[in-house]
Amino acid sequence: MKPEFDNPDLFSFDDSFASLYHLGTIKKKVINVARKDFEEYRVFAREHLRPLALAADLRAQKDKNSLADDMLALAVKHKMLTRMIPQFLGGTGSGVMWGLNPGIEELASVDPCYNGGVIAGHGLGFVALSMTMNMERMEWVAEQTVKGEQEGKPFLIDCAITEPMAGTDYEEVDLLPRARLMSSAKRVNGGAVLNGSKCFISSGHLANYHLLIMPYDINDPVNSNGMFLVANDAPGFNLGRIEDKMGMKAGAASELVFKDCFVPEQNILYSYDDFSESYAEELVMAVLGITRITVGAVGTGIARGAFEHALSFAKNHKWKGKTIIHQQWAQERLTNMLMNVYTARNAYLEASYVLYTTLMPGHMPGFMNTDIVRKMYNNSIAKRLRYTKMARKAMLKTIKSMPENEKQRLQFYSSMAKVVGTDIGMQNCHSAMEMMGEYGLRHDVGMEKLFRDAKLCQIFEGTNQLNRLNMFKYFIGRNIPDVKVFG
Predict the structure, then answer these.
(1) Within 13 A of 112's CA, how many CA atoms are on the CB side?
(2) How far apart are CA 114 and CA 92, in angstroms?
(3) Which of 48, 78, 269, 322 is deepest in the core (most CB within 10 A)?
(4) What is the value of pTM for the model shown?
(5) Which CATH superfamily is domain 159-271 in?
(6) Within 10 Å of residue 349's Cβ, how many Cβ atoms?
């Protein structure tokens, strides 16, 4: 039977060729800055991070409560925590976002746990905070992070979404009404009171503040969600256990416990009743539209690291009296692994094109990093203006008013980057372990750690099963009347 393409928009030019469509927006100067950022990530990963990775993992295997203070100190020393903060706020960011995910791939090829476990919570929390357009609190967190680096005392936040009975379903608006939530907030004079717990929170035991999403009405979470910033020493807050997980052991996955925990008004970052139109769905989906691409880059880095381990093994070991690299079966396997790396990389780069030309810019104009802009931006009058509710409402409106097809395209591409990257990372780890045999099982080689770390990436930021349904919802099923995705 001949297929009937009654929907000509299913494979439109904009949907199918994101990089071609947006190619003209990238200037050579921007590419050169991205290249420089990438090289700095490479030096940091290979010369400074690599010597710590295996020791930190082994230490955490022996004592799950040990914290990766040495990795955090390294990040502070090399100004890695402020790379996402622009220079006019005191950070070390170049302003070119195009180099971010290639840099994360570089880090993950050496140690996925560094970005996926140790500082992952800080990056996710900062992205979520930015999407609330609460400029006062966002700039305060940025200032504290910069100050911490300058003083050699790391300042981190995390992002707490997952609960004991609600994980992936908390990240999808169609599933949220059926999630078995156990945590909620209550309005009181001067702020809110939180009760419940969060779990599997990346870098929770390393964070100074905790950014969490929690509904005011547990029976209607979609329309009552709020976002809060909780200090470590807040009355009613306690750190719980650290999970004893299979991979990324050096990155603490923490339990956060709230018992009549008071949050002052200034630390209520977003509430469902802040504005006339609910922004809760757009907020969560915008955050995931950014961070799932990053997880895809981590998965690509894992795939690359596995390839590099297998290549090194093939060059230095023999089988039946012949160096493995000269065996045809090994050459074919290595080539397949390399193709996988490029496939995964293309997926997250295409998703980046969509992200940086819709939801957020791929780079800032060069003049933004000048002293003049820094002084103007930090002027007291400018601060008062951008901290107003009117200014915040206008900024939120830019996201809410994005064309629906662009929102759908971003969700499709970000989920695809996450699934393709992490599945391929796991696949390459399997191939490398099969090639290396019992040698690959040795902890001091590093391959078995990479294998353990890879699995976690298929689970967090929404399981790959959910992300596949997300892709169906926002691409295949978007123009099919009455189709049910999360039925």
Answers:
(1) 34
(2) 19
(3) 269
(4) 0.92
(5) Butyryl-CoA Dehydrogenase, subunit A, domain 2 (2.40.110.10)
(6) 20
